[in-house]
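pinned: reference chain
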Amino acid sequence: MKDSWHNNRISKELNEHYKHDFSICDLDGVVRWSFVEKGKDKHRFIVYESKNKGERVSQTQLQTLRILNENMDWLNFDKFSGCYIIEIIKYKEERPIEMDWYNLYGELIRTTTMDKLYKIFSGKPFNEK
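pinned: its structure tokens
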């Protein structure tokens, strides 16, 4: 929704007109990609909050991501799956767009370009250096 942190009318209505006895959280994205490996169904499941360089994650977002992360059985998913904070470190007209992936405790996991992010999200092959 324009000019608001709310990403939908339900969140906006609840936040503005009802008692805050629960948490509403806006997360930026969930990616799901399914594939078959050695005859078995496999899945990639990525939950992320994106921020521009220097922008901070709210405590509500971080707590929500940590609850999800700690209660998922990540062994059911591939090695790219998880909950991440993705910080855009180079943007505008600059190419390639670059971003850092952090775990929920501030540790850098990987740095990617937008092209590599697309390949991770869509399961396309890439060089993982």
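why pinned: The helical segments are 9-17, 59-71, 114-122. The chain has one domain: 26-122.
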